[in-house]
């Protein structure tokens, strides 16, 4: 044992003997608690984590029931540092129990130093639980993960701390993602909307990032719902959902959300094309090009190319060969040098369609299959 550690150990021993002689001396008891905490910190610095934990436990055991303000501060300090050692050494569940004890035991104390430690304990609880939930999802245990995310929401919901608000938002998003992955689209949408309702007006960058993620999730889920409705023959209901996506998010500058807007417009155009309302469909495809024609986002470029291709096919059907050829050429020139495989599929289709126009127009087979998906 080092000389420093011996000095600390002897100090604690002396203080303890004194305390035994005068058990009612609150000042001396506070000095003992302080000395024990100092000993535990020294042990931690020297790498003796087990002995440090035992020393912090001494503080808690000796003074946990004390009503003296200073001793309660020492107890919450000991618990905090005990939890931190457990957390840093991979004992997440044990650390979680310690942090929860801090919250349950000291949450009603209004002293700033104690309030700060309670808040830090809540932050540690949320951080550990969010990581635990993520690990469970990665390992296929979605139901257990749902329970963990519910714990985050329950334990941290009533707070003004921005970091904790962000963790609640993360937990809600993760919960919605699990529900969505299981096909519970309506429940997922309710959860996502809850994030928007709670935090959309909070002027905090990390929270606003979670809002942006949530908006994208809402748009994706709505489009998945519309696709499902279309497959079941409820095309008008699906159209209403596409309209909702376009109305809600049509002016966004978020690239991920723009992808969903473009997809909704594309599906809307196809809807009218299948009804032979070709002029309406063309105007929608032109809207896609107008909004996103200059984008460098590969996913958006793909949707622009698809919109132009469908516009070209309608013009071919209407026997507007020159206009159709111009549209196909626009696809070839604009996207021909891109290295995106899906985008190159659209370029190849445009080249094929243009050749067909040159050798005699659109085939009847192609006419019958157009827009039948």
Question: Care to give the gist of this entry?
Answer:
The chain is mostly helical. The protein has 17 helices and no strands. Among the domains are: about 1-90; about 270-373.
Key traits:
373 residues; 81% helix
Helix/strand-derived category reads mainly alpha
Q: Rg from C-alpha positions?
A: 32 Å
Biggest sheet, open or closed, and with what strands and sense? Answer: none
Helical segment count: 17
Kindly, what is the distance between the CA atoms of the first and last residues, rounded to a whole number of angstroms? 78 Å
Q: Can you describe what's shown?
A:
The chain has 373 residues and is mainly α. Among the domains are: 1-89; 271-373. Helices cover 81% and strands 0% of the residues. It has 17 helices and no strands. The longest helix is centred in the middle third of the chain and has 27 residues, at 112-138. The termini are far apart.
Task: Outline the fold blueprint.
Blueprint: H1 3-21, H2 26-45, H3 49-63, H4 69-88, H5 92-106, H6 112-138, H7 142-156, H8 162-181, H9 185-199, H10 205-231, H11 235-249, H12 255-274, H13 278-292, H14 298-317, H15 321-335, H16 341-359, H17 364-369
Helix pairs in contact: 1-2, 2-3, 2-4, 3-4, 4-5, 4-6, 5-6, 6-7, 6-8, 7-8, 8-9, 8-10, 9-10, 10-11, 10-12, 11-12, 12-13, 12-14, 13-14, 14-15, 14-16, 15-16
């Amino acid at each position: 044992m080092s000389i420093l550690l011996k000095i600390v150990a002897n100090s604690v021993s002396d203080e303890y003997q004194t305390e035994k002689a005068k058990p009612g001396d609150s000042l001396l008891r506070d000095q003992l608690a302080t000395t024990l905490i100092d000993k535990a910190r020294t042990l931690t610095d020297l790498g003796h984590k087990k002995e440090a934990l035992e020393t912090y436990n001494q503080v808690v055991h000796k003074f946990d029931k004390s009503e003296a303000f200073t001793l309660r501060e020492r107890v919450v300090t000991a618990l905090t540092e005990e939890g931190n050692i457990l957390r840093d050494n991979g004992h997440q569940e044990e650390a979680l129990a310690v942090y929860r004890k801090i919250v349950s035991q000291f949450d009603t104390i209004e002293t700033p130093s104690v309030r700060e430690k309670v808040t830090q304990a809540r932050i540690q609880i949320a951080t550990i639980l969010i990581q635990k939930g993520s690990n469970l999802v990665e390992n296929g245990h979605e139901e257990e993960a749902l329970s963990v995310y519910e714990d985050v929401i329950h334990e941290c919901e009533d707070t003004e701390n921005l970091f904790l608000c962000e963790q609640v938002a993360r937990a809600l998003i993760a919960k919605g993602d699990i529900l969505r992955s299981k096909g519970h689209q309506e429940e997922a949408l309710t959860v996502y909307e809850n994030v928007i309702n709670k935090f959309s007006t909070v002027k905090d960058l990390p929270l606003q990032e979670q809002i942006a993620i949530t908006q994208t999730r809402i748009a994706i889920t709505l489009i998945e719902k519309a696709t499902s409705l279309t497959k079941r023959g409820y095309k008008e209901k699906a159209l209403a959902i596409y309209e909702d996506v376009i109305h809600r998010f049509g002016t966004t500058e978020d690239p991920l959300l723009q992808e969903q807007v473009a997809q909704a417009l594309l599906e809307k155009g196809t809807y009218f094309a299948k009804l032979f309302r070709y002029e309406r469909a063309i105007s929608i495809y032109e809207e896609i090009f107008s909004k996103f024609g200059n984008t460098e986002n590969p996913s958006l470029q793909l949707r622009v190319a698809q919109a132009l291709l469908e516009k070209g096919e309608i013009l071919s059907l209407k026997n507007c060969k020159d206009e159709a050829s111009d549209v196909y050429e626009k696809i070839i020139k604009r996207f021909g040098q891109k290295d995106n495989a899906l985008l190159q599929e659209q370029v190849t289709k445009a080249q094929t369609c243009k050749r067909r126009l040159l050798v005699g127009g659109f085939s009847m087979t192609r006419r019958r299959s157009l827009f039948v998906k």
